[in-house]
Design goal:
Elements (H helix, E strand, L loop, with lengths): L7 H25 L17 E5 L8 E6 L2 E6 L3 E10 L4 E8 L9 E8 L7 E8 L3 E8 L2 E4 L5 E2 L12 E8 L6 E6 L2 E7 L7 E7 L4 E10 L1
Antiparallel strand pairs: 1-4, 2-3, 3-15, 4-14, 5-11, 5-15, 6-7, 6-14, 7-8, 8-9, 8-10, 11-12, 12-13
Length: about 230
C-alpha cells in the first residue's frame, strides 16, 4: 500500500487558503471599484413618457428617475439609457443637457447623451454615445447589439470637463451638434468643442436621449433635441 506523502494535508490546506484569499481579494476589488450595482430605495420608477433600458437586462428595481424642478433626478444601480418617442427623427439635429453629479463615485463613471438610436428595445439596439466623467475625461463610443466600439479610442482628458469641487458636486453642459454643419457631428463640453466626426461615420437618424452609467446620482436639466 503506498505511503502517504509527508506534509500533503498541510500543503492542500495552504493551497485552499491561498485560493480562497485570492477570490476574496477579487471580490473586494470589484466592490471597491464600484462593479456591483447599488441598491436604490424607491427604485423602479420612471416618469410618464420616458422609456428606460438597462445594461445586461438588469431589473429596473434599482433605477429611480424622478421629476425635480425643471429637470429629472436619476439615481442608479445599473447603467441605463433614457429616451422619449418625441425625440426620434431624421435629419440634422442638435441636442444638449446640463448634468450635475451630486457626489463623486468610488470609481469614475460616465454620463451624457446618445444619438442614432435604433431598435432600442431589442437585441439589435444601436446608438452612439458621448460621455464625461469625474476625472476630467470624455469618451465617444458606438453600441451595436452586445458589441461596443470606442470611437475616441479610449477616454480622453480635457480641461473643458469640470471635475468635482471641494464640496463634491460637479456640473457639465454637454452638446452634440449636427445642425450647424450637417456634414459633421461635433461634441461640446461647456461650450467647448472637444471632438468631431464626419457625419457619415455614424448613423444620425433615430432616437436621441440620455446615457447614465451605473451607481451615479445625477440631476439633469435642460435636455432638448432640435431638428
Amino acid at each position: 500500500m503506498p505511503s502517504a506523502v509527508p506534509g500533503l494535508p498541510l500543503l492542500l490546506a495552504l493551497m485552499f487558503t491561498a485560493g480562497a484569499g485570492r477570490l476574496a481579494a477579487q471580490d473586494a476589488a470589484k466592490h471597491e471599484h464600484g462593479d456591483h450595482d447599488h441598491a436604490v430605495a424607491g427604485g423602479g420608477t420612471v416618469p410618464a413618457g420616458w422609456s428606460v433600458r438597462t445594461d445586461d437586462n438588469a431589473p429596473i428595481a434599482n433605477v429611480k428617475v424622478a421629476p425635480m424642478g425643471t429637470g429629472i433626478h436619476v439615481t442608479l444601480g445599473p447603467a441605463i439609457i433614457l429616451y422619449r418617442a418625441q425625440h426620434v427623427g431624421k435629419g440634422p439635429f442638435h441636442t444638449l443637457a446640463t448634468f450635475t453629479q451630486t457626489k463623486p463615485t468610488t470609481h469614475a463613471e460616465g454620463y451624457g447623451l446618445f444619438y442614432g438610436g435604433q431598435s432600442l428595445d431589442g437585441a439589435a439596439e444601436q446608438y452612439t454615445y458621448f460621455l464625461v466623467r469625474q476625472d476630467g475625461k470624455f469618451l465617444v463610443k458606438r453600441r451595436e447589439g452586445e458589441q461596443t466600439t470606442e470611437v475616441t479610442k479610449g477616454w480622453v482628458a480635457s480641461a473643458a470637463v469640470h471635475q468635482p469641487d471641494a464640496k463634491g458636486p460637479s456640473t457639465n453642459k454637454l452638446e452634440i451638434d449636427n445642425k450647424r454643419d450637417p456634414s459633421k457631428v461635433v461634441f461640446l463640453v461647456n461650450g467647448e468643442p472637444v471632438y468631431s466626426l464626419d457625419a457619415k461615420a455614424t448613423a444620425t437618424d433615430g432616437a436621441v436621449g440620455l446615457r447614465v452609467n451605473h451607481n451615479l446620482d445625477l440631476h439633469i436639466d435642460g435636455f432638448d433635441v432640435h431638428r
